[in-house]
């Protein structure tokens, strides 16, 4: 076999090998997804700093989101829950799981109030099953429940924020099917 073919095969394998950072995200997200009653079709981690200027500011204020009509849960790389989960902090892994569950509720048609209720219900299950520390779990649940009383703008039937712009250019890691997902 000519040496240029071997070199080409070697370079191709390097190009397909996941970066160390990608692997860390994949391992963490796989642990988090194992905590859910159901997996999302796909999780994509995006870097707000790599996103277009028109959506960067919005992404910097978010932990997670979906796009209207999409089936992908997007996580922002700077999010506190994701950063804690990447460090292996168990509580943050459960928090991130509940955030993903909230976004999945939107994918299944829930408005903001219903998505919050589903997130809280999952969190209560984590507390009751003693998967999280009861004190930490109840404090976090209190914070979750106080969202509706603080945000008087959130009403049943509210639409999810719709982001416009190319998000995949800011993708750090894609967990799940990599083929384009059709809309439901």
Instruction: State the helix count.
Output: 7
Q: Termini separation (Å)?
A: 48 Å
**Helix and strand succession?**
HHEHEEHHHHE
Beta-strand content: 5-15%
Q: Whole-number radius of gyration? A: 18 Å
> Ranges with pLDDT <50 over ≥5 residues?
1-18, 156-160, 179-184
How many structural domains in the coordinates? 1
Largest sheet: 4 strands, mixed
Please give the order of strands in the largest beta sheet. 2-3-1-4
Give the structural class. alpha+beta
Reconstruct the topology from this structure.
Elements: H1 3-16, H2 20-33, E1 42-46, H3 53-60, E2 64-65, E3 72-76, H4 80-86, H5 90-107, H6 112-128, H7 134-150, E4 171-175
Parallel strand pairs: 1-3
Antiparallel strand pairs: 1-4, 2-3
Helix pairs in contact: 2-5, 4-5, 5-6, 6-7
Brief digest:
By secondary structure, the protein is an alpha+beta fold. Helices cover 52% and strands 9% of the residues.
Short descriptors:
184 residues; alpha+beta; globular; disordered C terminus
């Amino acid at each position: 076999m000519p040496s240029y073919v071997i070199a080409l095969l070697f370079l191709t394998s390097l190009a397909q090998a996941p970066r160390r950072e990608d692997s860390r995200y994949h391992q963490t997200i796989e642990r988090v997804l194992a905590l859910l009653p159901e997996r999302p079709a796909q999780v994509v981690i995006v870097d707000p700093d790599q996103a277009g200027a028109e959506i960067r500011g919005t992404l910097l204020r978010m932990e997670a989101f979906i796009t209207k009509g999409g089936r992908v849960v997007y996580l922002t790389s700077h999010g506190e829950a994701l950063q804690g989960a990447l460090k292996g902090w168990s509580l943050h892994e459960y928090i991130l799981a509940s955030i993903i569950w909230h976004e999945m509720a939107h994918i299944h048609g829930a408005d903001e109030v219903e998505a919050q209720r589903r997130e809280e219900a999952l969190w209560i299950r984590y507390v009751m099953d003693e998967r999280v520390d009861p004190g930490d779990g109840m404090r976090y649940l209190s914070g979750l429940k106080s969202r509706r009383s603080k945000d008087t703008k959130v009403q049943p039937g509210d639409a999810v924020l719709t982001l416009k712009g190319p998000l995949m250019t800011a993708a750090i890691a894609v967990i799940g099917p990599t083929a384009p997902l059709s809309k439901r």
